[in-house]
Amino acid sequence: MWKRVWNFIEEILADIAAQGLLVWLKGWLSLTALALIYEWIKGRSPLEFLFLAAAVVAVFMFALNQVAAARSRWRRRTSPKTSASSDVTEPTPRFLCPRQGARESYLSWWHIPVSVDHGQIEHCTVEFWASTNPPPITLRWRSDAAVGSDEVTLLEGRTKLIPVVIRCEAGALAEPRHNNIRDGVARITGAAYLVYGEINKFRLPANQLVFKLRVRSGKKQWESQEYIMKLPESRDSNGQFVVEVWHGGRD
Prior knowledge:
Strands 4, 5, 6, 9, 10, 11 and 12 form a seven-stranded antiparallel beta sheet that branches. Strands 1, 2, 3, 7 and 8 form a five-stranded antiparallel beta sheet that branches. With 251 residues, the chain is an alpha+beta fold. The chain has four helices and twelve strands, in the order H-H-H-E-E-E-E-E-E-E-E-H-E-E-E-E.
């Protein structure tokens, strides 16, 4: 309780400093005048007494108004501060469930869709990250160009696709541009593969691999949830080649 009283006194002193000593000096003189008025009204007429009573009420109301204003400022100062921008959150990428992006029957090419919850994020690049493969592999965004795009602007209401991993069934009658992957082995489709057709040196482990994607924009970055790719034997069909959201072994 004493702390609250002291805080209130500090607020009064701050109010004196804010409004000027002269205003508060006038208030003090008014209170002093009340004592003099008391001596003066002795023996005066009722009309004079009513006039002086009205003046006293006016001074009293002024004092109450100042105290109420000081209390209001004190409450605003001690209450949690909020800003006009506190309700406005920065746009954040949303990493969605993987989907197929290959048109050829002998190919399986998994893509990760990415959208934004509101607004837009400019100059977005993307990386593939797995604990078994440091450092990250630079990926590209799917676009009308065969080589994709190294960066995009994520817009609300639009979804961008990230080509992640491709697999061609062994021995398939593939187009010439897929001849270097006709061994039934999955490959990460990084920038080197899309631009130059080079096979990434990182070899995917057998059975499965848990990985994440990381989107960057300037100094900001966002990391996806974990995904898992299930990798079949080279002789198996693409029906067993699956990429999905990883729930850590939970059903």
